[in-house]
Amino acid sequence: MELVGVDLEERSYEIKIGAGLLANLGQSLIDLDIKAGTKILIITDKRVNDLYGSEINQRLEETDFEFKIIVVPEGEKSKSLNMTKVLYDEAVDFGLDRSSLIIAFGGGVIGDLAGFIAATYMRGVPFIQIPTTLLAQVDSSVGGKTAVNHEAGKNLIGAFYQPELVLIDLEVLNTLDQRDVRSGLAEVIKYGVIWDKEFFNYLQANHKEIKELDLDVLAKVIQRSCQIKAEVVAKDEKELGLRAILNYGHTIGHAIEALAGYGEYRHGEAVAIGMISAMELAYKLDMVTKEEVEAQTELINNFGLPTTINKLRLDQIISKTKQDKKVKDGEVNFILPNSIGEVEIVSGVKNEVLTEVLAKQLR
Amino acid sequence: MELVGVDLEERSYEIKIGAGLLANLGQSLIDLDIKAGTKILIITDKRVNDLYGSEINQRLEETDFEFKIIVVPEGEKSKSLNMTKVLYDEAVDFGLDRSSLIIAFGGGVIGDLAGFIAATYMRGVPFIQIPTTLLAQVDSSVGGKTAVNHEAGKNLIGAFYQPELVLIDLEVLNTLDQRDVRSGLAEVIKYGVIWDKEFFNYLQANHKEIKELDLDVLAKVIQRSCQIKAEVVAKDEKELGLRAILNYGHTIGHAIEALAGYGEYRHGEAVAIGMISAMELAYKLDMVTKEEVEAQTELINNFGLPTTINKLRLDQIISKTKQDKKVKDGEVNFILPNSIGEVEIVSGVKNEVLTEVLAKQLR
Ligand SMILES: NC(=O)c1ccc[n+]([C@@H]2O[C@H](COP(=O)([O-])OP(=O)(O)OC[C@H]3O[C@@H](n4cnc5c(N)ncnc54)[C@H](O)[C@@H]3O)[C@@H](O)[C@H]2O)c1
Ligand SMILES: NC(=O)c1ccc[n+]([C@@H]2O[C@H](COP(=O)([O-])OP(=O)(O)OC[C@H]3O[C@@H](n4cnc5c(N)ncnc54)[C@H](O)[C@@H]3O)[C@@H](O)[C@H]2O)c1
Ligand SMILES: [Zn+2]
Ligand SMILES: [Zn+2]
Q: Would the annotation count A154 as a binding residue?
């Protein structure tokens, strides 16, 4: 088992990474000093429950905790204010209180939704993330961002709220759709580009093993991804500055995701396209070499992720980019590489340059 | 003008107290480094808006900020999930973003509601409290508790979220109902009993001036109340321990409020009754003297607050007390005085003792 610490003073916690960790769920709870008799509300989605609900059930039956599993429909639609109402009611029914525990058991949708409930039920209930998609394991379960969507924007309602533990079982990835695996890999590439050239090279050298979900390589990849995210979050928990670099590839990515309709692109697919745009912008601004542009494109290709934009219009993408909630005072900030392994925040990118770059990606 | 600091590391802020501060609202915003052009969403209720809306409007017209005033119906009913939905929509419509500002302008209902919106819109927007009831000025606007109600319980959905500034204008108290003034005074008495015997004596010595809203005495009373709350909150922001002492009188108080139906008793009236119960419990447990019991009863009487319980049944009150959300692991904790000026948390108070005490208060 690998351990990664997230260092946030009194809100610090550990990420446990390993194959088969779910089997020891009871022990992990005891290690956290969760007392016998504690009420545990597990929030999961239909698909994850069909696959792993009985295992969770069995593991918790073996313990002295009182638990209840709530299953919501799978997909982004469950990240809604309406669903929070349903979950608050369920929590009340179950008699959840501040000394209880909430477990998010699923992908990023469940993590964000259950995390928001944990953040706001009785002003905060302890909670644990058990991420079951690669994207959730390397990204959304770490760092304390929780949210639901609003018609006007994704993640518009939310809170910063840290879990007590993140428990990553590599084995659950075996049932994941290929597209969801790839989606997670986009975020992994992101960590290499923004923070760690050596890691980027490791991904390139091991891309076959990674795609085949080789457990040893995967453990290393997830661990390093979590480390990088944890390091950035520790320095800027509330996204006042540095944390913005985690949005590398996301400015264009979010615009594409929103325009195509959520669900059309997986999040990571849109991010991959956005990373291509960002690297190209950096190239136009003389920040990176042609070789660096090509290295990133090659890795994105090797992971089977898209690089071009289908069916969207250029002016739509540009105007959507300017509505991003990270836009401060009307100015779009781009996270652009200085080299592979380092990014900076660049403001005032000219419309012409952006247009030229995006035009090349349009199909 | 009096200043009280709330010391919470990077979340620290100031409380400004004085007569006529509203007239300088623009300057207060500039002092906070709010930039020209910033969008400001003011949330208030019907009554406060009728009384002070035009003044706020005028003060903000004089500035370079872009603002919008949203008026919700007055009363506890507005502290609902449904109302949060309305306010999120208004915020989106207005184009509020993370660099904007929310101002809560009203009593505790508005502070709690607007604070919750500020805590959860885009994972947190800066906000300012301008409390206009005495209760809000001495209690709810300070300390970062925000919340809305759920059918199953008051303040069941909420967050800890600190304002950037609390601006207390004493003059607005002149339009407050007598009952609302008294309600705030119950919390003031509470601070004396839990923390500061000298302050308790000052209240006793000046009870006439206080009831007449003498500005000099009032400034002192509000300042000391805020100081005490700030001190307790600074030591225990998230209510893991010490902060519970602010619930002196509230265990029974909340039960009575809920049973009678919110609105029947003002919050402070219920708390006054609860403080009588708590002091009496402390007396039965040999923690305080007969003189101390009488001193508190006298002050509560002098402020015109109730001491007895009407129209409720004993068994109802006791069972409701046990449902309080502060109950951990089924055990009711009481905050009881050791003397006037000091309290401790006492668990395992016997049912018989509680019954005996409450029976004496029932009418
Ligand atoms: N909080 C953050 O920091 C953060 C960061 C990135 C993304 N996100 C959010 O994460 C969400 C996307 O996450 P996601 O991609 O995990 O989506 P998801 O949770 O919808 O999971 C994708 C699909 O995989 C299924 N699934 C989950 N685990 C499985 C398993 N082990 N085997 C088989 N199927 C499984 C789910 O049922 C779902 O159908 C978005 O809402 C995004 O906003 C949040
Ligand atoms: N967050 C906390 O720490 C905390 C602490 C204590 C109480 N509270 C909450 O505070 C709420 C009660 O606060 P409240 O008593 O201020 O109630 P409130 O906000 O409903 O105000 C009481 C009434 O006074 C009116 N009013 C407000 N200012 C006025 C003024 N200057 N002149 C004339 N009328 C005015 C309001 O319109 C309302 O009708 C409850 O919801 C309670 O849960 C929160
Ligand atoms: Zn992402
Ligand atoms: Zn109170």
A: yes
How far apart CA B56 and CA B52 sit, in angstroms, is: 6
CATH number of the domain that residue B61 is part of? 3.40.50.1970
Whether residues A228 and A320 share a domain: the answer is yes
CA distance B304 to chain A (A): 33
Residue A326, Cβ density class (10 Å: 0-12 exposed, 13-18 middle, ≥19 buried)? middle
Confidence band for B329, pLDDT divided at 50, 70 and 90: low
How many domains is chain A partitioned into structurally? 2
> Quick check: A159 and B123 CB within 8 A?
yes
Q: What does each of the 363 residues of chain A score in pLDDT, given as a tens digit?
A: 999 999 998 899 999 999 999 999 999 999 999 999 999 999 999 999 999 999 999 999 999 999 999 999 999 999 999 999 999 999 999 999 999 999 999 999 999 999 999 999 999 999 999 999 999 999 999 999 999 999 888 899 999 999 999 999 999 999 999 999 999 999 999 999 999 999 999 999 999 999 999 999 999 999 999 999 999 999 999 988 899 999 999 999 999 998 988 678 999 999 999 999 999 999 999 999 999 999 999 999 999 999 999 989 999 999 998 876 555 555 688 999 999 999 999 998 998 999 999 999 998
Residues A211 and A328 in one domain: yes
CATH assignment at residue A205: 1.20.1090.10
Which of A107, A142, A175 corresponds to the end of one domain? A175
Residue-number span of the structural domain to which A128 is assigned: 2-175
Please check whether residues B60 and B148 belong to one and the same domain: yes
Q: How far is A227 from chain B (nearest CA, A)?
A: 23
What is the B141 CA–ligand 2 centroid distance (Å)? Answer: 10
Model-level ipTM above the cut of 0.85: yes
Our answer on whether the CB atom of B110 is closer than 6 Å to any ligand 2 atom is: yes
Domain shared by A157 and A241, yes or no: no
In B, minimum Cα distance to A97 occurs at B325
Band (B188; pLDDT cuts 50, 70, 90): very high
Q: How far is the C-alpha of A273 from the C-alpha of A264, rounded, in Å? A: 14
Say if residue A30 is in the same domain as residue A163: yes
Q: List binding-site positions of B for NAD(+).
A: 74-79, 108-112, 132-133, 145, 154
Final residue belonging to a domain, choices A117, A144, A175:
A175
Is B185:B305 a contact under the CB 8 Å cutoff?
yes
* A202 lies in the same domain as A283: yes
- Asked if residue B351 and residue B259 are part of one domain, the reply reads yes
> Chain B partners of A84 at a C-beta cutoff of 8 Å?
81
If asked whether residues A157 and A196 sit together in one domain, one would say no
Distance in Å, CA B145 to ligand 1 centroid: 31
pLDDT in tens, B72-124: 999 999 999 999 999 999 999 999 999 999 999 999 999 999 999 999 999 99
